[in-house]
Specification:
- There is one protein chain.
- The longest helix is centred in the first third of the chain and has 38 residues.
- The relative contact order is 0.10.
- About 40% of the residues lie in helices and about 15% in strands.
- By secondary structure, it is an alpha+beta fold.
- Strands 9-8-7-10-11-12 form a six-stranded mixed beta sheet, with helices on both faces.
Length: about 675
Amino acid sequence: MSLFKCILLSGLVLLIAASGTNMNAQAGGGVVPVPIAGVNIGVPPLINAGGGDGVLGSIQAFDFALLNIETAERERKAREEQIAKAQKMVDDGLVSALDLAAPVKAMLEFNKAVAALQQQHTKDAVTYLNKAIADYPKFVSAHNNLGTAYEELGDNALARSEFEAAAKLDGKFPASYLNLARLSLAEQNFADAEKDLEKVVALRPRDPEPLTVLAYVQHNTHNYHHAIQTAERVHSLDHKNFANAHYIAASAAVSLHDYTVAQREFALFVQEDPHNPLAPNAQQNLDILAKYRNGAVQTPSGGGPQQPAGGLVAGQQIETFPDSERLRSELASLGTEGDEDCRDCAVAPSGPVTAPLPESAGSPSAGKSLTIRKTVDEVALYFTATRHGDYVIDLQQGDIQLRDDGKPPANIEMFAPQAKLPMRLALVVDTSGSVEQRFAFEKKAATRFLRGMLTNPADLALVIGFSNDHTVTQEFTSNLDDLAAGIDHLANGGGTALFDAVLYACQKLSAYPDKERVARVIVVLTDGEDNSSKSSLRNVIQVANASGITLYAISTKEATGRNGDYGQPTTTADHILQALAERTGGEAMFPGQISLLGKRFDKLHDIIRNRYLIAYRPADFKPDGHYRQISLKADQNGQQLTVRARKGYYASDRGLSSMPDPK
């Protein structure tokens, strides 16, 4: 269970539901059972042997007495086990000792709130949690969950008030301080985040998660020595999935010009998490530092711990269907693009741009500032232009009219057909529910597609399979045989965490250390029925747009179209795929029949290869997190063309560090 974005009391709910016993917390945090009516522990009830005198009657009474002693003993042991479990949850920091004394009425309201949060009915959850707190004001986990709900609704002031109330009630419950730290991080208030994280670490000294986040905060407050020391503490623990601590330490070491430590930490990072989106960047820095051990290097930005985006308990699954309530809620959350207020989701308009260290002979002078990563205020917009369904392949810059936030761009940096740019393509394949025979056909079609797409020696692709989790079966490569093998290694079975997989692909593409402009594309092969993700549809679309990534989706659902040869988008899952693709400037396709899958891949090949790039600097750009709408029109020889492009982006300069992690 991740301690960020916690729904804290699912374990307690199960515990109370499994036990008919009420429990009260003593002043010291211990737990004692409330006596159950009619049972005196250790004292067997009076037994009527049912007749018979003399020796026989006595034997019968004795046997029944033993039986009841054994029953009472079992009940006593069961109560002790439940109490021990509750105490362990308190000791592990999963629940507050005060929560164990919550009355049944408050617990029932809390359970309703948990269910409402799982279904993303946040306003209903607020109502239930307020009722639970009114019935039991010391309900620490209710305060924490209420704060999380307020945060989801965009009211950070009320969220902080609830988190502070929880911390004041129980100063030994770490999750309250974690929630406060997370809120401060979202507001870029690193000083307050550091104070709260230090309290968490004092309560949970062997938990690598808060230690990793503390190292990240120490790095951002320029406390580099402490950041390295904290990362070393993480390394001394079982820190699987927290290799990011080494990237933070390496960045801090670069700032201190301690290149020996920087090399060691980058190497540990790559060794422990080779598929991390920042692994190629770390490897590039290792190569550079090996050449310039004595050079002056500026701090790399980003690469710290990422904040989970969901609100559900890790590992929890929700059953779904093509028209499930959960999928309908995801679509409804999108609203009208541009009306959303999601400053915390914003990143730079074109995503992070890698600026590699110089590779000229000799060591760079100490006076130069060499950045490992920087972000620029430049928008990379890809689009297609068609006339009566045919692609226009000779479009000129003068044929287009562009407006960003209602204004012409300050400067056009580049206009070119995509074919002139290297491509970075992520093939993301749903391996969750396919029948083996069908799945083999899907893999064959995907392999043919990749062989046709990678025509430039500088093109790179990777293969990601996903069910409940995502797995990289082939890292970035231009080797077509290796990519085919990666597709062949995909194995089907499991749930569907579509949003998490796409978000991970966005991170992989945007973090790759490119030295020039590239075209970033994700192609998803799935039915769209997400039932396991911690990320949301809205957040995935925002991150893709912020990183200059276009998504294309091919549905694997079986359906008969209007003419018997084309499946139409009819279900909520279909509209999920449409939203993912169209709101990033791409397209969703619905073959409807497995036999038509290859033709849809061929069409997708034409769409991607016939795109244009216009890179520009927007006028009056301010990194204030507000939504900037893009309007793009094209006409040629007096004829209006049909243009497909993304509609806008959120303006911020915080780069990769604002992206959430789906792990």
